[in-house]
Every structure is written in structure tokens, then in C-alpha cells.
Amino acid sequence: MKSPPRIRVIGSINLDIVARVPTLPRPGETVSGGVLAHYPGGKGANQALAARKLGAEVSMFGCVGKDGASEQALALLKSNQVDLQGVTSLNDVATGVALIAVDAKGENQIVVAPGANAAVSASTLADLRGVYDTTLCQLELPIETIAYLADTVTGLLCINLAPAQPLPKRILDRADILVVNETEAAFYGDQLHGSKALIIQTLGAAGAVAFQNGKEIARSGSPAVVPVDTTGAGDTFVGAFMVAFLSEGSVAKALTYACAAGAAATLTAGAQTSMPSRDQVEALLGATA
Predict the structure, then answer these.
(1) Which of 232, 234, 246, 242 is nearest to 184 (CA)?
(2) Which pLDDT score, from 0 to 100, does residue 289 have?
(3) 67, 83, 229, 235: which is the annotated catalytic residue?
(4) Exposed, middle or buried by CB within 10 Å (0-12, 13-18, 19+), for 105?
């Protein structure tokens, strides 16, 4: 039996404070009637948990504060046996927090206070030596830190370009896989397809498409579901794609699997609390075959 892929995730760790409301507020508007909940989150931690629940061996690297929020933020990673030796606890800084409003249709608005995530750097990161099948990171860390990782880590490097922001060309040139949604793809434009990386673009409910050297090489639809909460669906897609791609070696199969995982993640409230198991993803794939 092939051993499970070993994935190192270097990224953000947050506590998500979520208010479910009838409608999302417009600028200057107050919406009442919300129901509040706390969930572990952060794009890095989300993707780490998604990959772990789908069978990978996952090591998480990042920073939290020495506060009560860190325990909540790391709770599901701990209970699912994600390796947390690479997580550094810092004095005099708060654990990152995301403020999330979710409406009755499952759409969301998110404001992030990065806290300890902004302190992730060459000096605060744990030892990056080790053997992994891939390193996965996102853009909720300082860009200087992403550049350091691009210069330092060896082997397959996947970067989820979220949230979109200007990047040094050497980061895009170093990446082997770049994952974007439609908004991020529009932000980077020709920079993406000028890269030699495998480009994975998610299309929401329409699925996802893969490009290499400016040409489409694979496409997949997404299973039709009635979403409860879309928070974390994109992160589930990223984690699922990497697990399937490393396990199968097929971009097309990995897209199909990741689209099903992302759809499954919309059926439960919260980001990490919605991450599906392998059985759930396979059941959804079987139901739509």
C-alpha cells in the first residue's frame, strides 16, 4: 500500500468569530438578529486540517499568541493528530482572529486581524528541515516570509495566492503549483500564465480548471449541493487537491476530488468544523457519478 502523502503547511492560524445573520450588511448598515459562534480557522490551519482528514500526514508551521484563543484555534488540529511541533507560541501578541458574517444563503464577509500571523518570519519559524512531499503556503503571512520560504524550502511548493496582493516575481517563478479563485486570477492576470507553474483556478459552484503554460489541461464540474456555509470551502479544495494529486499523480482526478470535497464542506457551518472525511467525499462522488 502506498504511504500517505506528507504535507508541510506553513500558514495562518486563527480563531474565527462567526455571526450568522439573515442578510449581509451593506456599507454603513447594521444588521441585527445574529447568532454568534467560535470556530478554529485561518487559511493555513484550515488547509492543514482538510488534508489531514483526507488521509495525509500533515505538519503545521506558524505562530499563535500565548492566550486562550490559541487553545481554541488549535483544538481541531490537535484532536486530528496534525503535527504541531512547528507552531510557535509568542509572548505579547494575540492569536489571529477572523470576524465572519454569514447570511442565510451561505455567503460570507470576512475581516481578519492577523495578530501572531503577522509575526511569522525566518526568526520565529521552527526548523524547516525535513522530508515532505510538498510544502503548502498561503498569503495570510507577511510577503517577506513567503519570499523567504520560496528561497529556502526544497521540493514541490504550492502557494494558494489568497488573499491576492502584489508579489515579487521570484515567488511566482519558484512555485510549482499556484491556486487561485476567479477574483485572484483576475488580480494576477498575465503574471499567472507567464509562470511555468501548474495553475489551478476554482470557479465556485461551476467547479475548477487547470492550466499549464497558458493552456487548459483539465476541467471539472462541482457536485450540485444546497450550501449552508461557504466558509472554508476554498481551503478544503486546496487541501483535497494536494492530497489527491500527490496520491494519484493526475491533475484531472485531483480536480474532480477537490471539487467534491469543497462542495461537501459547504454542507456544515464553520470552516474547520465543515471539513469532510474521505468517506463523505467518496459518498458525494458516488452520488453524482
Answers:
(1) 234
(2) 59
(3) 235
(4) middle
Question: Which domain does 149 fall in, by range?
Answer: 6-14+41-96+115-288
57 falls in which pLDDT band (50, 70, 90)? Answer: very high
pLDDT of residue 274: 87
Average of pLDDT values for 225-247?
Answer: 92
Q: What are phi and psi of 106, to 5 degrees?
A: 90, 0
Residue 116 in contact with residue 65, Cβ under 8 Å? yes
> Is 103 known to be catalytic?
no
Please, are residues 21 and 38 in contact by the beta-carbon 8 Å criterion? no
Report whether 75 contacts 68 (CB < 8 A). no
Q: Does the pTM of the predicted model rise above 0.90?
A: yes
DSSP per-residue string spanning 112-147: EE-GGGGG-STTTSPP--S--SEEEEESSS-HHHHH
Q: What is the CATH number of the domain that holds 55?
A: 3.40.1190.20
Q: Is residue 47 part of a domain?
A: yes
The cell 487561485 sits on which residue?
180
- Tens of pLDDT, residues 271-289: 788 899 999 999 998 876 5
Task: Report whether 70 contacts 64 (CB < 8 A).
Answer: yes
Rounded to whole angstroms, how far apart are CA atoms 96 and 3? 34
Q: Looking up cell 442565510, which residue turns up? A: 104
| Ramachandran area for residue 155 (φ above 0: left; ψ -120 to 50: alpha; else beta) | left
Indicate the angle between helix axes 233-248 and 43-53, nearest 10 degrees.
50
Domain count, the chain: 1
